[in-house]
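Our preliminary data section would be incomplete without showing what the modeling component actually yields. Below, a chain of 339 amino acids is followed by its predicted structure, encoded as tokens that our downstream tools consume directly.
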Amino acid sequence: MCEFGAGKCIFANIAKLTMQKLKTIIFGSERKAEIFNYLFQKSDCFELAGFYDPDDEINFNGMGGLLYTGNLLEKADVFVVDRHTLRMEHGVIENLIRFGKHILFDGFHHGTDLPVEQFCSLQAESRNCIQVANVLHNKPLFTTASQYIRKPRFIKLEKHCPPPGPGEFSSWLFAELGQDLDLIKRVANSEIRHVSARPIFLFGKNPDLLNIHIEFDNDAVCHISAGRAIEPGLHRLRLFQENRVFVLDFPENTLTEYRPSDNQHQLNILSDEIPENSTELSTIARPVMPFDAWQMELRNFAENIEKNLTPRTCLADWLGVLHLTQRITEKVQRRYHEV
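Predicted structure:
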């Protein structure tokens, strides 16, 4: 191992790379680099060239700017950005895009102030691959469910999560519900007509429950309930479509389909709760497709780079989530200034 400059920028002493492998640098902690190094050992396309931790104080100059980032451009073709990094400078990512570097974000980055729209504009010129990995949409449970979902009319999400702290509503909303909102937007497959949102205060000055109502142009409707007033551990998405209800239980990684035993009862399944042991409904436990989500992400990433394809989750999807969370935040803070 060798140190790069005075900062903590460590590059692996690796064997000579084959022509097929792409040198990859991790923007994140040493632990995150170890995780990706393990993943890359199973990959024929990527190999770790090192990591650079934007949150390590030693990597900053006296003005608060990151040191040595320009030198990193020469050392790798691919950069992975950990979604948990707190001090990832906008300009660093913009330079990576301008120089045609391929970027893999480890999920929707928790920094809601990143100029994603600017990143989209730059990518349109540079034509490099920017992929967002590790989101619900790309994982086995939804990949399996997507084979059966056809034009849902009613979407209901319930999720237990901690309440936001004072002044943290916007970042909390994105971190806790960003992936779910992304999933809902793409399942509905329609532009949003109307959004309403209301926090409910039960145990103190911080909202304990957030209710969100979304109406789409195709007349689909979505209702979201999230917060600590929801049953602990619950994270469930229900999709109501003609003659079918699908229940995705994320903690249990299960997909259950309900269908009417007799079509004359098809409207009964639109009730708010699915009755247990109902003779009117047939229950089918759909097996979830088993695959390694990260190995699939890396294979898709390599193929997208090679063939110049658009990733399953890209900057446009990220931007769509940001716009929706901004609309919800405006609705809430317009009436509840203390949030």
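The helical segments are 30-40, 69-72, 90-98, 116-126, 140-145, 169-188, 293-307, 315-335. Residues 94 and 118 are 8 Å apart (CA to CA). Preliminary results of this kind motivate Aim 1 of the renewal.
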